[in-house]
Amino acid sequence: MYLLVDVGNSNIVFGVCKDKKIVYSFRMKTLTNRSSDEFVILFKSMLGDYQFDGVLISSVVPVVTSMLVKMFKSYYNINALILGPGIKTGVMIKADNPREVGADLICDVAGASLYHKESIVIDLGTATKYIYQKDNTFMGLSIAPGVSISMQALVNKAALLPEFELQTPKTVLCNNTINCMQSGVIYGAASQVDSMIDRIKEEIKKPDIAVIATGGLASVIVPLCRHNIIVDKDLVLEGLMNIYLKNLK
Description:
The structure is a single chain. The chain is an alpha/beta fold and 249 residues long. It folds into two domains: 2-82, Nucleotidyltransferase, domain 5 (2-Layer Sandwich), CATH 3.30.420; 92-235, Nucleotidyltransferase, domain 5 (2-Layer Sandwich), CATH 3.30.420.40. Helices cover 37% and strands 25% of the residues. It has seven helices and eleven strands. The longest helix has 28 residues, at 177-204. The two termini are 15 Å apart. The relative contact order is 0.16.
């Protein structure tokens, strides 16, 4: 068995794999002030009896990457692989500066290309990312503030608006402050997704292209969208799995 780790700004997602299947996955909050000793206690409580002999990490949070590498070496005697230079991904990158393309985006492309020759990938995480991939090639990207960032900005910048939970109200038009804010953030995000899909399809002249959504908020936003969108919560892990298999000696 081997372990895949996707470190995002909001969450860390783990996937335990056997052969070419993800048999178990779990997530925890990304906290940069944890020590490797503290982290291994949480990690072991989630991992249960699963054992692994290899690790591949995709990360956009360097301080957490260092802590994980130390943990796997100290407690499991495993030298974790880090997705970066020297790792075979199979993903081609069409960008002005390929080094600027994050590990999470490469995993999105690697995962999506397993199922679709050409697709739009919407990654609904801390940032909302719209990725166009074709023939296992990263073709272009648009980045918008994520749902949680929009919610925090609304509360922090408007003195009279209260904090609120990210829940979907039953109607778009509401009659109390909390529901009104929830509506604007959540239905507004769904409307953005629909509009961006339309614009991307028009720009690439592919009206029937497949659209895949992933990320922690995909299950909240996609049901409110008007387009046909495939939800794949494990897309990044599937991409990581594909990359890991390419690097087995």
